[in-house]
Specification:
The protein has a single domain, classed as all-alpha NTP pyrophosphatase fold (Orthogonal Bundle). Helices cover 67% and strands 2% of the residues. It is an enzyme of class 3 (hydrolase).
Length: 209
Amino acid sequence: MSQSIRQQQLVTMLTMQDSMNQKVHPKWLKQNFQWYRAIWIECAEMLDHYGWKWWKHQSPDMEQVKLELVDIFHFGLSCRLSDSDDYQQIAETLDYEFSDIRHADEFRTTLEDLALNTLQTKSFNAQIFAGCMQQINMPFDELFTSYIGKNILNRFRQDHGYKEGHYQKVWDNKEDNEHLIDVIQSLDSSSTDFADNVYQALSQRYPAS
């Protein structure tokens, strides 16, 4: 992938993230939300999906692992947007950092390095994040597609009462994240209407009130 395409995708995601944050709170930049805290909590949740308990049999749920990584990227983008409103400059910096991949010998350790760095710096380390992506075989295009899907799910949640507390997260005995995976796999991610199609497909699946 050429650098310009990745930067363009990063600008798209930064724009969507800023819009989503404004939907949750119109003046989110002035609230000093602790995005770094959300990142390390997501790291722990991801480790549970990957598996770490030596006293029982566990098989990595890679779809959920990848979705947790996408969640982290939402918070990582928010960290960067908290420091600057220049989408292009942020995209250029992230693009460089994604090319400077850093990881430990094993995924669990890389994930712990990401959590530790986040706690130490209260920021988002894209190099270690990219190391996590590499170790679970998640290319940037997949991150981009999954990010758009999860961003739309987050918007869908807000539109259906997530903030007020009456959103149904489980439908037909499946969490909405699982429904999202099914939706993404059923749609053409290269379509210019991909985001709108994701929202429509979620609407069709969501139980009527």
